[in-house]
Write a structure and sequence with these properties.
2 domains; 269 residues; alpha+beta; single chain; seven-stranded mixed β-sheet; Beta-Lactamase
């Protein structure tokens, strides 16, 4: 018999990209700044270009690149670097208001602006990724802790299953998730204990392509035997790293521990 569970609790997950007006407008604003800010700063310096050393103008443009790169968007930083190099050449080097370069030193400075921008952008993107992964790791620990607390408090197994299914939906970005005591048919894909996904005898690259097929089974074990399965309905094409699958296995194991200690396991659902 299958236990139908209510829809997942709305759980914000760190690092999730949401397609919405705020996310789109933020990205658009950063890209506009990446293109326009170096041009604006270089143009503003034109009254001083007869008195301003080229290196000073280049340093000011580096500040602009760093400001754009602080958003953590690699592409925006690269665009800002290109825009800064071209703006420096057009507004601040002789012949003015031309992309021609008459001095080797100016060419070197322009290339350095480009290289610095790309390097800063890469570092900022890596830092943003590391911060996102750290936040996701904290979120996963919180999920496991909450389930463990439910077990320690002696919560009924059906409540533990409900919370576990909700956590799996959020963790793996699933369309749906439910628990069943029996196999609903031939198992085409399953999550293995080591955080992999087996499709027949093959291992599926979830980090690149997400979970395969319309349903993936995750065994719920307790007292050394399989007590049932969480049936996962994936979001197509959403990458799932192995670390999240390992967390999913731990969630299923905690649910199994709750089932194994519930004396009504064979009759209630």
């Amino acid at each position: 018999m299958t236990t139908s569970l209510p829809p997942a609790r709305p759980t914000p997950r760190a690092g999730t990209v949401r397609v919405g007006s705020l996310a789109v407008s933020t990205t658009a604003a950063v890209m506009v700044a990446a293109v326009g800010a170096p041009v604006t700063v270089a143009a503003a310096l034109t009254p001083l270009r007869g008195h301003l050393d080229d290196a000073d103008g280049a340093l000011l443009l580096v500040v602009v690149i760093v400001a754009v790169a602080s958003s953590g968007r690699r592409l925006a930083a690269a665009v800002a670097a290109v825009s800064a190099a071209l703006s420096f050449d057009f507004f601040l080097t002789r012949p003015y208001e031309s992309l021609r370069i008459s001095r080797t030193a100016d060419l070197v400075t322009g290339l350095l602006l480009l290289v610095v921008g790309l390097a800063v952008g890469e570092l900022a993107a890596r830092r943003r990724k590391a911060r996102r992964e750290a936040d996701e790791g904290d979120d996963e620990l919180d999920r496991l802790h909450d389930l463990a607390e439910m077990l320690a408090a002696g919560e009924e197994s059906h409540l533990v299953l409900m919370v576990a299914a909700s956590d799996l939906r959020a963790l793996l970005t699933l369309r749906d998730c439910w628990f069943t005591r029996q196999e609903t048919g031939p198992i085409k894909a399953c999550v293995t204990a080591d955080g992999g996904v087996a499709v027949g005898r093959e291992t599926w690259p979830t980090a690149d392509f997400g979970l395969p097929t319309k349903q993936v089974h995750l065994a719920v074990r307790g007292n050394g035997r399989v007590l049932g399965y969480f049936v996962l309905s994936p979001t197509t094409g959403f990458p799932v790293p192995r670390e999240r699958l390992l967390t999913a296995v731990s969630i299923a194991d905690l649910a199994g521990a709750s089932l194994a200690t519930d004396h009504r396991v064979s009759t209630d659902y």
